[in-house]
Design brief:
23% of the residues lie in helices and 22% in strands. The protein has a single domain, classed as Alpha-Beta Complex (DHBP synthase). The longest helix is centred in the N-terminal third of the chain and has 13 residues. Strands 1-8-2-3-7-4-6-5-9-10 form a ten-stranded mixed sheet, with helices on both faces.
């Protein structure tokens, strides 16, 4: 059985230390996010990312999202950062905005596509626990703890795995999902909305008037 830590009763620093230790050891952990429980692991540990995909039952070519601590990490991960990207991340990070970039070539990771897509989707979460963990790690591969194609897991009683497959599970009770993140595509010459979620078009165009919707 996986170690379980209740974030509603455990000291935050102890919980963070436990998460970081497991992540650094190449384990996959379960943690709460704004949109449900998720799997997390070191984005640069290929065996851990592969294990994450196996837990979800992902098909070949499915890639994980990347969580980072703040926008200052972006230059090491993506090819270019426009003025519009600087503006939108300053406004909406941390928060429910995901951005797809052209990845820096030569990064030693495999997020599920063997590097063939050359793209990466990145977000800075505003969940307190995740933010604290990310201050002590590098970029983390993140994906819903649900089976591929299924609804988010809001109750750990519905976690669709054997707990022995996980390093540690961090519980925050039964979650209330805020909905979905808004996704922007920054791989072309002009930013484009790929999916509307918690952040709507009006909020986005107030920051990026030339945004394609």
């Amino acid at each position: 059985m996986a170690l379980r830590i209740d974030l509603q009763s455990e000291d935050l620093s102890i919980a963070v230390d436990t998460a970081v230790r497991n992540i650094n050891a190449g384990e996959v952990i379960v943690a709460p996010s704004e949109f449900g429980y998720i799997y997390l692991c070191d984005a640069f540990k290929k065996d851990a990312v592969k294990a994450l995909h196996i837990l979800r039952g992902d098909a070949d070519g499915v890639v994980t999202q990347i969580f980072i601590r703040d926008a200052a990490v972006l230059p090491g991960l993506v090819k270019s950062i426009s003025n519009d990207i600087e503006a939108v991340t300053r406004k909406f990070w941390p928060g429910p905005l995901s951005i797809t970039f052209n990845a820096q070539p030569g990064l030693s990771w495999d997020l599920g596509d063997s590097g063939k897509l050359g793209q990466v989707n990145i977000r800075v979460p505003e969940n307190k626990f995740l933010a604290a963990v990310l201050k002590n790690t590098g970029p983390l591969a993140a994906a819903s703890a649900a089976l591929s194609g299924k609804s988010a897991v809001l109750n750990l009683a519905e976690l669709p795995i054997y707990e022995s497959d996980i390093g540690v599970i961090f519980s925050d009770g039964i979650l209330r999902s805020a909905g979905k993140s808004t996704v922007i595509d920054a791989t072309g010459a002009q930013l484009k909305v790929k999916r509307l979620g918690v952040i709507d078009t009006k909020e986005l165009t107030a920051v990026i008037p030339n945004l394609l919707t």
